[in-house]
Amino acid sequence: MSRRVFDAFVFDLDGTLVDTASELIAAYRKLCIELGGGEKPFDDARKLISHGSGRLVTEATGIQENDPRWEPYRQQYLDWYEELLGSSAKPYEGLVDTLKAVHYAGKQWGVVTNKFRRFAEPLMQAMPFEPGAGVLVTPCDVTQAKPHPEPVLLAAAELKVAPENLAYVGDHIRDIESGNAAGCFTIAVKYGYIEDHDNPEDWGADLCVESPEALCHWIRNHL
After folding, report:
1. How would you classify the pairing of strands 185-189 and 18-19?
2. Disulfide-capable partner of 192 in 15, 47, 122, 186 (CB 3.0 to 4.6 Å)?
3. Interval 128-179: pLDDT, tens
4. Choosing from 7, 14, 43, 196, which is the catalytic residue?
5. What CA–CA distance (Å, rounded) separates 211 from 92?
6. Domain shared by 137 and 172, yes or no
7. Mean per-residue pLDDT for 93-104?
8. Catalytic status, residue 141
């Protein structure tokens, strides 16, 4: 059987393409200290990143979404995070060179994220990818975010590739569900922001990889 090649490689952002934990946790730590009950362990919070800002606010302060303070606290957290954007986040090892190889092979790459454009765009601009992503799809660009297939289908359309010729990579079950529903080849990464009870092997991905090195090796073998 011949080796399969792909026309495009598209990534989730946080925990898949870029390690943003240091910035997100720095803002979370400030939230804990200034509005919560004190500093909490880095590793515990890191596993909650994929759940979004609201979950972090609840974990930091103990305040639930129906509390009138919750939304102002969430906005404060986002403002603190915005001040840190691009200061310490960095692409996972090997991906800058691998995506350069994707470009030289005449293929395309992009990002589909549930991170709002307010944060995703400046973060990507601060990263050393050259050339940059061919497409960046955020919840601001679609009517339904992941796990709905619309964001991945939009990325495929913008890149002018058929979904079945696109590989979508993510560190959360919603990434895999979105890519599968769109008809893409899906890859679950085990190095992302994954909670202890989660098992990427059970998400229904076409492939699971253990490390950024393994992901880069796979991509280079499918150009």
Report:
1. unpaired
2. 15
3. 999 999 999 999 999 999 999 999 999 999 999 999 999 999 999 999 999 9
4. 14
5. 9
6. yes
7. 98
8. no
